[in-house]
Specification:
By secondary structure, the chain is mainly α. It contains twelve helices and no strands.
Length: about 270
């Protein structure tokens, strides 16, 4: 058990992705500044569109938040969190996670790791731990950017609700890391593993969207991890769904347990 918690591999993983972390953090902070900053220019036209009822046609796709599109919270949720946060950032983090082990196997560097006095479980576990700081830095860096630009443009937003939204995002991104890690230990080609993850996340997002638009398929939404992160409810009302967070943590745990067991017994050609 002591071997599992040395964290040398985790620290090396953090260092390997420090530039990626910095770039992604600055990118999403810039996106936050862009979308928050342009709201005042769109506020009046959005209010006119809301009065005309045009947003009602989109409510089946994006939920009740569409009706609130003319407000700062509704605009921020739909433009930033609904797409760039849940989907785009999810794809990026999952893309990285799905290549963690597979790139070591494909590049024939896994033998260097395993030649050290470390177990296979330790390699997988610490690689997973090594990506958590990147996720947290991007997450809360973006939050600080939203706070700063909100104060600058003088719009109303509960920073407490904003903080809860980003806290609620942590289990979601952990589940993405877990799923990506599972694909990484099963598939030996890093690009193939990453592409499969992208297809999987997009498929789950499509399932969640279909469950909202077609009443007969409403129950299918539970099969998608995007179903368990409703940013609008937290951002607008401060609702933190504990059960959804626990489900995402369970998904992460199951994926990691399977990853540890599978990689422990995996035949690796060196």
């Amino acid at each position: 058990m002591n071997d599992i918690f040395r964290f040398r591999i985790a620290f090396q993983t953090i260092m390997d992705y420090k530039k990626t972390t910095l770039i992604l953090t600055l990118l999403f902070m810039a996106m936050a500044v862009l979308y928050c900053g342009m709201f005042p220019a769109f506020k009046e036209p959005l209010e006119e569109m809301a009065d005309s009822g045009i947003f009602e046609s989109f409510s089946s796709f994006f939920g009740p938040s569409t009706f609130d599109m003319a407000t700062y919270v509704g605009f921020l949720n739909l433009e930033l969190y609904q797409i760039f946060w849940i989907v785009i950032l999810g794809i990026i983090i999952g893309f990285v996670a799905a290549s963690l082990i597979s790139k070591e196997i494909e590049g024939k560097t896994i033998d260097i790791l395993m030649s050290n006095p470390v177990s296979r479980k330790q390699i997988v576990f610490e690689k997973f731990i090594g990506l958590i700081p990147m996720t947290l830095i991007i997450n809360f860096g973006t939050m600080l950017a939203v706070m700063g630009i909100t104060v600058l443009i003088g719009e109303e937003l509960s920073f407490g609700n904003l903080f809860l939204t980003h806290v609620a995002s942590i289990p979601y991104f952990l589940s993405i890391l877990g799923i990506g890690m599972l694909l990484s230990v099963i598939i030996d080609e890093k690009m193939k593993a990453s592409i499969i993850f992208i297809a999987l996340l997009m498929g789950m997002y499509f399932i969640e969207t279909m469950s909202k638009t077609v009443p007969d398929y409403e129950l299918l939404g539970v099969l998608s991890i995007t179903h368990y992160l409703i940013t609008y409810d937290t951002l607008k009302f401060g609702n933190f769904n504990v059960s959804s967070a626990l489900i995402l943590i369970c998904i992460t745990t199951v994926c990691m347990v399977i990853s540890l067991i599978y990689f422990e017994h995996k035949d690796i050609e060196i």
